[in-house]
Amino acid sequence: MSDWHTATVQARAPAADGLTDLVLDIQGTALVGTHAHPGQYVRLRLPGQQPCMFAIASPPAPQGTRWEFLLKDEGALPSALLHLPPGTPVEVSRPEGPGFPLVKARGHDLLLFASGSGISAIRPVIASVHQERHAYGRVTLYFGARTPGSFAYAGELERWQADDVRVVRTVSRPGASGWQGLTGYVQAHLGEEPLEDAVAFVCGPADMVQGVMAQLRQRGVPQSAVFLNY
To answer: Which residues cross the membrane (predicted)?
Structure first.
């Protein structure tokens, strides 16, 4: 049974086509300091709605008082959350799941795979890696979206690259957008570099996760080096 606490909506803003960034203020609650690992998730609920799980999109911060979430406009609860005005109370559970084991990636190349709203669980990994970038080898983010307008945190991608994180973006449904970049699924763009000593963190829909894991297996990455955020 979840341990519920009352946070309040601090801000919300469009993040990409069909995606909204929601910031909750947890100041004064027992939740402060409970987010320990990037990739952990919580349950949110509103009166009369069934709770849903959402990854915390901001990095762990021992004294942090704000948690960010990336909401996809699908389902009753997400649709209700993304229309709440600032100051509205939202019930939040304690963080769940082990998150991503950054300690196991130290000294290795790190492969990050995200599709759609799955970037919400990978974003805090990147923030944590930046705090001690020297502890890791090459870091590459493979980020897939349906359309060019569906990449959340688009404004942060250049900063990530400037901080020595290679960003590979691919669009599965470019349509008539004029997109000049890569197309198809993330696992199709691993390139030719050796991956045997790499560690991989993966977050996205089940079919994407399975496809990535199969491709990594073919490239010599053992299953023990591939981690999901649950």
So the answer is: none
Fold of 102-228: Rossmann fold (3.40.50)
SS3 (DSSP) at 130: helix
Q: Which CATH class is domain 4-93?
A: mainly beta
Task: Give the model confidence (pLDDT) of 150-172 as tens digits.
Answer: 999 988 998 998 889 999 999 99
**How many whole angstroms separate alpha carbon 118 and alpha carbon 104?**
21
Q: What angle do CA 119, 123, 126 make, to 5 degrees?
A: 135
3-state SS assignment for residue 27: coil
Both tokens of residue 72? Answer: 């996809």
pLDDT digits (tens, 9 = 90+) for 81-115: 999 999 999 999 999 999 999 999 999 999 999 99
Q: How many residues does the chain have?
A: 230
Render 193-211 in DSSP notation, one character per residue.
S--TT-EEEEES-HHHHHH
